[in-house]
Specification:
The protein is mainly alpha-helical and about 200 residues long. The protein contains nine helices and no strands.
Amino acid sequence: MNREAALQLMREYTESPSLRQHMLAVEAAMRAYALRYGEDVESWGLVGLLHDFDYERYPNAAHSPSDEHPSWGVRLLRERGLPDASCRAILGHASYTGVPRDSALARALFGVDELCGFLVACALVRPSRSLSDLEVASVKKKLKDKAFARGVNRDEVQQGAVELGVPLDDHIAFVIQALRPVQGALGLGQPAQPA
């Protein structure tokens, strides 16, 4: 599977612009970590791009380890030839599947998933609506505010950095840098218009 096929699959299964943007953000962060670790940028990017493609149709509120997201999607991805390591990483990003994150690829996906969503939320409330002026201290302050971006699992943000073996501040700074070049595709970088 190449990026164009992955994008096509994402568009076929996901209508929500914000969920599509989330997958693009995770793709960018995964590509950056692949470069950092000397891994295959394309395959890591595909994992980021595809990790939630089935979420809109099969959201899995019951957290079934074998039905709905991400298990449903992984079955389709396997049929389409995505390698087993990539499929295991996608399964492992949802802790309830019970699939261990026993590779750098799996740990990176888990590490960037929740953080990407949180960083975009942080950027959206800035006057600039941009990642360009977003700083680690501001992100950490927002992490302490449980009312802000409630849907983001703060424990998983912390755990992601731990599993990567990276201090949280460094992890946040690295992912901010990774997302800046693609912020236009994430709906960021345009100041809010007055009402």
